[in-house]
Write a structure and sequence with these properties.
Length: 149
């Protein structure tokens, strides 16, 4: 854990509790997950109950308690996307990757997740791979995207 960098992030905030999300983003980016050790450290430094930090980490899909694979695919399953064919997109991804929702490929390259609205409803059906957005998806488009990864 990079305590020095975390301390630097915390110093930027007058209200130290506001440093929680920036600290979590940094650790997720650096370590690919939010460990117990990190949650304990932040709870103590930011004076936030550990259970509250755990709730934040569990609530936001961009944070993970388990180490994430290289490509985390998040497919939107909310209404607009659902009405525009999310099921077809998910079926294609399952078929191409050979995994189910919530699973990772054996080589550790892809993780497949179903999430709520990504804010891309005007491009439904939509998904994200890591920080990149993909909209107006079709089965063929999804296959091309996976091939390019
Ligand atoms: S409903 Fe899918 S991005 Fe909003």
């Amino acid at each position: 854990m990079k305590k020095e960098k975390l301390n630097q992030i915390m110093e930027k905030f007058e209200n130290k509790q506001q440093a929680l999300l920036p600290c979590l983003h940094f650790i997720q980016e650096e370590e690919g997950k939010i460990s117990e050790e990190v949650m304990n450290f932040l709870a103590e430094k930011l004076d936030i109950p550990r259970v509250e930090i755990y709730s934040v980490v569990s609530f936001y899909s961009m944070f993970s308690l388990e180490k994430q694979n290289k490509y985390v695919i998040r497919v939107c399953a909310s209404l607009s996307c659902y009405l525009n064919g999310t099921n077809k997109i998910i079926e294609t991804l399952k078929e191409v990757l050979g995994i189910k929702i919530g699973e990772s490929t054996p080589d550790g390259k892809f993780t497949l997740e179903e999430v709520s609205c990504l804010g891309l409803c005007d491009q439904a059906p939509a998904m994200m791979i890591n920080d990149r957005e993909y909209g107006n998806l079709s089965g063929d488009k999804v296959k091309e995207i996976i091939k390019s990864c």
